[in-house]
Amino acid sequence: xxxxxxxxxxxxxxxxxxxxxxxxxxxxxxxxxxxxxxxxxxxxxxxxxxxxxxxxxxxxxxxxxxxxxxxxxxxxxxxxxxxxxxxxxxxxxxxxxxxxxxxxxxxxxxxxxxxxxxxxxxxxxxxxxxxxxxxxxxxxxxxxxxxxxxxxxxxxxxxxxxxxxxxxxxxxxxxxxxxxxxxxxxxxxxxxxxxxxxxxxxxxxxxxxxxxxxxxxxxxxxxxxxxxxxxxxxxxxxxxxxxxxxxxxxxxxxxxxxxxxxxxxxxxxxxxxxxxxxxxxxxxxxxxxxxxxxxxxxxxxxxxxxxxxxxxxxxxxxxxxxxxxxxxxxxxxxxxxxxxxxxxxxxxxxxxxxxxxxxxxxxxxxxxxxxxxxxxxxxxxxxxxxxxxxxxxxxxxxxxxxxxxxxxxxxxxxxxxxxxxxxxxxxxxxxxxxxxxxxxxxxxxxxxxxxxxx
Length: 454
Known about the structure:
This protein has helices at about 60-70, 80-90, 95-110, 115-125, 140-190, 190-195, 200-220, 225-255, 260-275, 280-295, 300-320, 320-335, 350-370, 445-450; strands at about 130, 140. By secondary structure, the chain is an all-alpha fold. The chain has a two-stranded antiparallel sheet with strand order 1-2. β1 (about 130) and β2 (about 140) form a beta hairpin. α1 packs parallel to α3 (about 95-110) and α4 (about 115-125) packs across α8.
């Protein structure tokens, strides 16, 4: 019969086919009443909901517009988006600080576009008006941006100094621990006799202590919250290092836009050289000098650069980390090559630049293939055995495998491995390619017997 809505599903027909593993029972079909309303979904108190623009104040709306403009910034749309950014309205100190914070954060998270953000900062520095605080201090775009860069730059040296101080404290605690251990060892020797008398009691106590230690070890197993805290701390440390290095690149790009003076840049380089030679400071030094070295290495600053690289060379020989050692050596090689990097740094490009580079690459490949010439086939050379008479490879006037000697080559330049005009055997083994036996019967078994006869 027909199945009616509201009734249970009819049982499935018997399946006579065996399963994949043999003759097994088929999977049972669910049987039950499929009608009726579905249960209500569980609703949380803090469910996600899109933020409506009406719920935001004027400053939040302005910052959202600034972020949208920065997300679309490219070399092609630079001028158009700059006009849109100015139209947003940087008309208060709060708006100025908000725009600077947005640009600074984007530059630290996107090092490939640091050059573009630095160019935007240089243009905004000359276009945004100056504001005054309640205390009478003047706020300019350049001053606020450089103060944020300096604050982030100082964190590199501060973190390294903290690590150094923490290491010294650990060493001091280690020495104190050794003294305490020696004292306890002396006390243990003095009480050795008492311990022997109470051996059985001590053994029982040791067993109890061992069980307690096992329980403590089980309790010390990392929980889910502890693992999340550890992973969060590792992520924060990774982001701190990433932002510190990208800030150094951004500072170098601001210097190339003439927003920072050479004197300040020399101060930055010297502070990194004088800091403890840790990975953070040395990697930041390499990033900074690879960005600004070409401009600093002029007639006025060459003496400073020479002094910097003398110390860099000494550190490259002393540092134990191979990664930092090779970074320093690459930096020295870069200066030796007139500040030309071994690998060209990728940056923002216009579409016509990309097309031009693709055409140049295609032309270069075509020119290199024409310079190599057409590939020679198996029978394209003058020494090919299908064109060289009956002797083939074994003839005394044929050249090496695959082409023979050149026809314009003098006789005294011909290969020694193929026999002279006298027809004697060559240096190769008997019956081989160089033993005189032709590929197509130029010298057969009789000729081979004649050569071997006494």
